[in-house]
């Protein structure tokens, strides 16, 4: 049987087997069986998609061309796996706790769930991955062509491009079948994972088999092989230190950033602890993969005729030796490497493209929120499937355009450098709180441009896309813009040069812009959750479903995942909760499950947003907020200082306002006081002036008239004097400048004196009633001032009491410790509405009688305040009634006096 | 016939002084000493001239003047306002209320006479 036909048959059988395995695994996972599917070994094997056809075929070619340098491609991931194990763990933890579906999702989520950033990452990922997919197609095509060429029965060579097309179609079919089967929780694809794990075993076994054959079959033993390796040119390649470090770092970066690596490492991860196993098992796998690379390359170089592509030594050596079976195994190994890479890359990229580009566009085009629009499930599925087709097709297109002429390794490195641009934003996002969205976008943009210019575009060959003169003289004739010698970095290896400048500028811009710009609150919050992922949020942030309405959730879910599935989900949850109906309580667990379910269809951010629209509850735990608060302590302090300053200013302003108000009030009081004073002064002045003019100018006045008018002038002059005295007295009292002259004396004696002083002379009509027994108390106070108050009250009674036979009764009583002296007359008293103003200055009531300036009671009040007592008007008495109250401290019984 | 003047003022000595001066000048002087019913007094007496103090018990001179002016019969009766508060504001208020003339206490007797004579002569 012709080898080519056998090959096709074996190949188809193998593919069918993969389908079966994937289907079975999917089925088992769906029914909850197959715990072994989640074993750490499966996880480790799935990581082996790092070893693509580039590794399978290309490593040997790489070794044949550049010697031991190929080892750097394995060294990078090994260092990451062992030395950066905790970084990976953090990434996985963050990925799980934030329910991210891709590296674009992770980066966008970290930087405030920014879709702009997600689109940037997606675009860069697609551009970076397309050549890689092309590379896989090319490897399959090349190996197939090699087989065909060595097959004597095949009359003509199959068309390379049609082979690539068929492979591309087959891969698309597989990926769509197993990658978009289940649009459910967490983007895990058990079928796919188990299939690639199987392929990992196949490719390792195939490579080891070829290695064993080469060492023991062709070379004749280990020592022989070593001798032949020593003799081969591989050992004579000059090792450039810079290139070694550069390549190692590049592959390490790519290992972290490649979308497909992220897919298997983070998204498909079932258990964080699987990383422990992978930390040693994966480097072991890589070591086995690279074990026979040098022998195969060395023997190949010596055995095979010159001009044979060293990239295909793995295949051509067995063929050359007539070992068709081994060759077929080798082909299957290479085929496995290529297909697993394409499948996972297509899944990873399609998730990104559909979630971040197609779905937002579709939702935008629909012009409504996701909740409002109809069934988005089909849209999500269709977007995913179209994306897969589109991505594989892009790879095919690149393969067609580039003509497959490039050596495999070179294309791989271009891809690596492209995705390595994610590194600053990714690592910054995981470890640096100050990193922000603007910084990430800027850094990514700069890195992308530099990479495009110095690596991606030149990879199509000089003078294909970039004309030759740009390579010679730089863009726009600027010497420092030559793609291979940016900023005058002459003589560097083009790869190291491009990686150095792109990553360096990317990082620098990322850091500078992050420092110069201020993150939004969501970024700060997400930053805290990412950077401090181990400190809090050990699981996904829970929902608080108190306010959620199950029915609304149900309606929304039906639109997204289809009514049957939604109903099954809801009634299942209700049953679990022990409820009779089909609607479960919106417990946090249920909401979390629902969100996971939805996020598979529409992406995490959208699912989260949709549920939070309905639940409306806080999606942030107290710890998260506290963490942010901790981190923002400095800003808080600064702003609180500012606030304090502002408060101080406000306080000062308030005080100033109060002071101003008081001044205005004082000014008004002063005005009215001056106006009153003016009135009180001008009124007697008017009489004095008028009568003095009459006396002066009027002839023939009778002596009586003269006497009368002179008396008026005299009385008014006295009135003026008294007014001035009162004013001065009041002013002194009010300013507290008065010196109290404390004396001791009996109240009865004081009243005697007072009445005598206030006496109205012989014509006095006012009768004064007293109770002398009660007045037998001793006072120790300023008796003269107290007498002044009494005189004022008696004089007022005399002046204003309007009874036929005016009578004033003065009664004393000791109430508690206070002494109360009431002055009650039998007149009509003071009207209720005026009782409140009588103690104010210039308060005069009723018809003014000469001699009253309205200051008396104001002075009385001031005096009583100074003496520690009080004066008040007693309403509801038979007439005008005033009460003078003296404090206990001034009162003593008469017995004390003798002491 | 003697011109009738109504003096609305609450300070007894000033009433006496002004009455004396005007009587000697040939005026028929009537006096009223509170604000409450000052407008009624004006209506009853139909004076040719009113001398009105601003500060009166019961009602301010400005209010009384406004009421007088609102009565058609007294719209043009000359009113001399007296105030003991020598502030610009008071003068403005007096003019606004419709005072014909405004005088600040203390005044000279000759001033008062000149004023009332000229006001009635108009």
Description:
The complex is a heterodimer of chains A (899) and B (122). Chain A folds into four domains: 3-420, Sodium/glucose cotransporter (Up-down Bundle); 550-631, no CATH class; 653-734, Signal transduction histidine kinase, dimerisation/phosphotransfer (DHp) domain (Helix Hairpins, Orthogonal Bundle), CATH 1.10.287; 743-897, Heat Shock Protein 90 (2-Layer Sandwich). Chain A is 67% helix and 5% strand. The relative contact order of chain A is 0.08. By secondary structure, chain B is of the alpha/beta class. Chain B has a single domain, classed as 3-Layer(aba) Sandwich (Rossmann fold). In chain B, helix 4 links the parallel strand 4 (79-83) and strand 5 (101-104). Chain B is globular and about 30 Å long. Chains A and B meet through helix 29 and helix 30 of A and helix 1 of B.
Provide a concise account of the structure shown.
The complex is a heterodimer of chains A (899) and B (122). With 899 residues, chain A is mainly alpha-helical.
Q: Can you tell me the CATH architecture of the largest domain in chain A?
A: Up-down Bundle
So how many helices of chain A? Answer: 34
Estimated helix fraction of chain A = 55-70%
Give the structural class of chain A. mainly alpha
- Category from helices, strands and their pairing of chain B: alpha/beta
Query: Largest sheet of chain A, described in full?
Result: 5 strands, mixed
Average predicted local confidence, pLDDT of chain A: 77
CATH topology of chain B: Rossmann fold
Q: How do the strands line up in the largest sheet of chain A?
A: 4-6-7-9-8
Order of helices and strands of chain B: EHEHEHEHEH
The greatest interface between two protein chains, and residues involved on each side, is:
A-B, 27 and 26 residues
Bin the strand percentage of chain B.
15-25%
Low-confidence runs of at least 5 consecutive residues of chain A: 537-548, 617-632, 846-851
Report the radius of gyration of chain A as a whole number of Å.
52 Å
Shape of chain A: elongated
């Amino acid at each position: 049987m012709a080898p080519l036909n056998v090959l096709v048959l074996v190949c188809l059988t193998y593919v069918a087997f993969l389908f079966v395995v994937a289907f079975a695994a999917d089925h088992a996972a769906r029914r909850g069986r197959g715990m072994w599917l989640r074993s750490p070994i499966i996880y480790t094997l799935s990581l082996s998609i790092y070893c693509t056809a580039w590794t399978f075929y290309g490593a040997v070619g790489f070794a044949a061309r550049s010697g031991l340098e190929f080892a750097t491609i394995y060294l990078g991931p090994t260092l990451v796996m062992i030395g950066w194990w905790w970084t990976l763990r953090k990434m996985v933890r963050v990925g799980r706790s934030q329910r991210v579906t891709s590296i674009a999702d992770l980066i966008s989520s970290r930087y405030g769930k920014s879709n702009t950033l997600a689109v940037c990452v997606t675009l860069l990922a697609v551009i970076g991955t397309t050549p890689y997919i092309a590379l896989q197609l090319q490897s399959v095509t090349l190996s197939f062509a090699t087989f065909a060429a060595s097959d004597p029965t095949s009359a003509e060579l199959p068309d390379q491009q049609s082979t690539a097309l068929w492979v591309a179609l087959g891969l698309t079919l597989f990926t769509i079948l197993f990658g978009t089967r289940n649009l459910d929780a967490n983007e895990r694809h058990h079928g796919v994972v188990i299939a690639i794990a199987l392929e990992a075993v196949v490719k390792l076994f195939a490579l080891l088999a070829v290695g064993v054959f080469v060492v023991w079959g062709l070379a004749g033993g280990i020592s022989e092989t070593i001798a032949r390796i020593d003799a081969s040119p591989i050992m004579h390649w000059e090792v450039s230190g810079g290139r070694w470090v550069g390549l190692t770092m590049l592959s390490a970066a790519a290992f972290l950033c490649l979308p497909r690596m992220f897919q298997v490492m983070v998204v498909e991860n079932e258990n964080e602890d699987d990383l422990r196993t992978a930390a040693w098992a994966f480097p072991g796998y890589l070591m086995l993969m690279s074990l026979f690379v040098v022998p195969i390359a060395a023997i190949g170089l010596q055995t095979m005729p010159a001009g044979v592509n060293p990239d295909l030594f793995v295949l051509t050596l067995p063929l050359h030796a007539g070992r068709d079976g081994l060759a077929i195994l080798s082909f299957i190994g290479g085929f496995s490497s290529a297909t697993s890479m394409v499948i996972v890359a297509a899944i990873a990229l399609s998730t990104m493209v559909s979630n971040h580009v197609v779905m937002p566009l579709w939702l935008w085009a629909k012009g409504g929120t996701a909740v409002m629009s109809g069934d988005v499930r089909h849209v999500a599925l269709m977007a995913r499937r179209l994306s897969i087709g589109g991505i594989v097709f892009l790879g095919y297109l690149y393969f067609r355009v580039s003509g497959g002429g490039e050596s495999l390794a070179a294309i791989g490195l271009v891809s690596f450098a492209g995705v390595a641009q994610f590194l600053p934003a990714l690592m910054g996002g995981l470890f640096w709180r100050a990193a922000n969205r603007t910084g990430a976008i800027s850094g990514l943009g700069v890195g992308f441009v530099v990479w495009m210019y110095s690596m991606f575009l030149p990879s199509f060959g000089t003078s294909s896309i970039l004309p030759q003169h740009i390579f010679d003289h730089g863009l726009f004739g600027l010497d420092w813009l030559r793609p291979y010698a940016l900023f005058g970095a002459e003589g560097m290896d083009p790869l190291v040069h491009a990686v150095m400048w792109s990553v360096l500028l990317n990082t620098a811009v990322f850091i500078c812009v992050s420092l110069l710009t201020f993150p939004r609150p969501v970024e700060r919050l997400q930053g805290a959750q990412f950077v401090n992922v181990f400190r809090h949020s050990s699981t996904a942030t829970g929902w608080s479903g108190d306010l959620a309405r199950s029915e609304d959730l149900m309606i929304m879910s039906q639109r997204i995942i289809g009514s049957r599935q939604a109903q099954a989900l809801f009634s299942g949850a209700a049953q679990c909760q022990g409820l009779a109906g089909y609607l479960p309580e919106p417990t946090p667990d249920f909401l979390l499950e629902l969100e996971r379910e939805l996020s598979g269809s529409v992406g995490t951010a959208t699912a989260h947003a949709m549920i939070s629209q309905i639940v409306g509850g806080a999606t942030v735990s107290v710890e998260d907020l506290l963490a942010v608060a901790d981190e923002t302590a400095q800003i808080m302090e600064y702003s609180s200082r500012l606030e304090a300053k502002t408060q101080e200013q406000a306080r000062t302003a308030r005080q100033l306002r109060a002071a101003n108000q008081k001044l205005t009030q004082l000014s008004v009081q002063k005005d009215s006081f001056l106006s009153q004073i003016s009135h009180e002064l001008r009124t007697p002045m008017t009489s004095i002036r008028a009568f003095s003019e009459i006396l002066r100018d009027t002839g023939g006045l009778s002596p009586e008239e003269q006497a009368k008018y002179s008396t008026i002038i005299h009385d008014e002059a006295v009135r003026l004097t008294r007014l001035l005295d009162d004013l001065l007295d009041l002013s002194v009292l009010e300013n507290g400048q008065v010196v109290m002259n404390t004396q001791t004396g009996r109240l009865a004696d004081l009243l005697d004196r007072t009445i005598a002083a206030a006496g109205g002379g012989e014509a006095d009509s006012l009768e004064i009633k007293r109770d002398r027994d009660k007045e037998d108390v001793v006072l120790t106070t300023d008796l003269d001032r107290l007498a002044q108050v009494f005189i004022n009250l008696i004089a007022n009674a005399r002046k204003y009491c309007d009874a036929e036979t005016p009578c004033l009764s003065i009664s004393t009583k000791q109430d508690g410790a206070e002494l109360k002296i009431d002055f009650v007359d039998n007149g009509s008293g003071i009207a209720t509405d005026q009782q409140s103003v009588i103690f104010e200055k210039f308060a005069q009531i009723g018809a003014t009688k000469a001699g009253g300036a309205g200051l008396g009671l104001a002075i009385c009040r001031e005096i009583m305040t100074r003496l520690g007592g009080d004066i008040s008007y007693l309403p509801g008495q038979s007439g005008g009634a005033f009460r003078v109250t003296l404090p206990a401290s001034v009162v003593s019984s008469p017995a004390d006096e003798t002491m | 016939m003697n011109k009738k003047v109504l003096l609305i003022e609450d300070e007894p000595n000033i009433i006496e002084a002004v009455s004396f001066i005007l009587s000697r000048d040939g005026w028929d002087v009537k006096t009223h000493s509170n604000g409450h019913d000052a407008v009624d007094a004006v209506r009853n007496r139909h004076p040719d001239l009113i001398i009105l103090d601003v500060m009166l018990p019961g009602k301010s001179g400005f209010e009384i003047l406004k009421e007088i002016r609102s009565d058609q019969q007294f719209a043009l009766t000359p009113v001399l306002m007296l105030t003991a508060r020598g502030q610009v504001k008071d003068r403005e208020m007096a003019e606004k209320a419709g005072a014909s003339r405004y005088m600040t206490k203390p005044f000279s007797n000759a001033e008062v006479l000149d004023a009332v004579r000229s006001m009635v002569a108009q």
